[in-house]
Structures are given as structure tokens and as C-alpha cells.
Description:
By secondary structure, the protein is of the alpha+beta class. The protein contains three helices and ten strands; from the N terminus they run E-E-E-E-E-E-E-H-E-E-E-H-H.
Amino acid sequence: MRWTVHGERAMYSSPWMSVHLVDVELPDGARFEHHALRMPNTAAGTVLYDPSPDRGVLLLYRHRFIGDFWGWEIPAGRVETGEDPADAARREAREEVGWEPTKINRLTSYRFASGSSDGEFHLFFGTAMHEIGPPTDLNEAERIAWFSPNAVRELIAAGEIHDGLTLTGLLWAFSFGLFGNG
């Protein structure tokens, strides 16, 4: 059943996001204002994988100030206006971990909070890795490290990976056997 939108007004706006109040009416006739988080740009992230025995999945360890927690994540970030999501995913990998996939395949795109936001994430799987150099965005990661797929499973089970974009990408890769027998 479709809700009717009677109007919308911005309460706060920035280049990163805006908060709106939307005047909605439910199919049963109830009418109220619903909060909506509008995201002008999407985000892209890449599960970086090298099957070499001394490598595996490349993750970055970072602090997230909003929830005041640390965790392992895949490189990810904002897709700039007019930028192709796959190009953004490659750029974020170069900037955040200093590695770039030669091959990149789309995993999925999804709405991360469809009941309250129009934000969208694009996920990719990158292989045939080559090192570009040290990360250029020094504000992103405390450290970067390679993990075997089994070690990634252990990080997930231990609650050390809690970022939704990262979990979605990694679980997608595990579900569809993209890590091979690892």
C-alpha cells in the first residue's frame, strides 16, 4: 500500500545530508509528519581480495566518533557528483589503503535505511591487486591489514566488524563463494 506525500520541508541541510519533515498520509487516512534523511550523494565500497597465501582480504581499522567505537572496515566513501560508483570505489581504495584492484565487479547496490533515508550504497569486489603506495588519506585508518577469509569470519563472529556496508560486502562475498575455498 502506498503512502500519500502531501509536502516536505527541509529542517537542516548541508552538502553531506539534509533532514526533512514529510507530511504523509497512510492508506487508513492517518496523517502525520515523518522524518527523512536525504543523502545527495551515494557511497561506494570495495571488498579487496588477493588469494595469495600471505594476503587475503584487505581491511582498515578505524575509529568512528559518532558511536565512539573501533572496527575493521572495507575502504569506502562518497561518490562525487557525476562520478561512476566503480571509479569512486577504486579511488577510495587508493586513498584509504594504498592498493587498487585491477579488476572490479559490482556486487550489489542497496538502501541502507529505507524506512528513514534515501541513502544508497554500492558494493564492489576487487581482485588482481597492486600496491599504489602509502594511503593518501591519513585521517581514515589507524592501520591496514590483510586477513585470510577464515580470519575475517572470526572478526565478524567476535564483533570486530560492525559497519553495515562492510558486513554486507563481506557476507555477500562469503554467500556467493567469492573467496574460493578460503
